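Render this sequence as a predicted structure.
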Amino acid sequence: MNKLIIAPSILSADLANLGADVKAALDAGCDWIHFDVMDNHYVPNLTFGPDICRALRNYGITAPIDVHLMIKPVDGLIPAFAKAGATSISFHPDATSNIDATINLIKQHGCQVGVVFNPAVPLDLLSSLKGKIDLVLLMSVNPGFGGQSFMPHVLEKAQQARAILDLWQDGTRLQMDGGINKDNIAAVLKSGVDTVVAGSAIFGYPNKNYIAAVNSLRV
């Protein structure tokens, strides 16, 4: 299986000091930065646009920026996020009218591709994506807000996804996002997840002790 990647979500970061907070998390051992994009349409919240992504790059952040688009329609902002410095762009299949066209658009702009499955969405589509994507993102909360409680039933879905990806043998990563912390991380990793998004568990750690926060997730 792939090496564990920890990707703190800036949804939980100190937005008044975003560059410094992100740098501190990376200096503490985080690997990627997870960038939640919400449009107050596909999900009931409004967050970050391409300019914030560009601002992090201009601040000096060189780590991979993992953009999760919770927007509909999805294609219009893909070029802007790619230009702003996104490394990977993930989208929800029901937010596009043509999944293959959206995948190709992300690739054409030089980014890796992720496809997202909400907690209630089965994995039926996954088998048709072999060779087309770099990342499968399983939501372990309903998207739209940070700080929600982890949904344990998604662990079974992760096991199913891991079995499929192991057959592919192409390095496609299995990511999980939502309510992950030191209390459930062992079960998450046991289910086959190799890329963990953590918002509150990193940026909300007591006294901003991000080194301890990262160590609590590397079990």
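Summary. The CA atoms of residues 26 and 32 lie 8 Å apart. The first strand starts at residue 5 and ends at 8.
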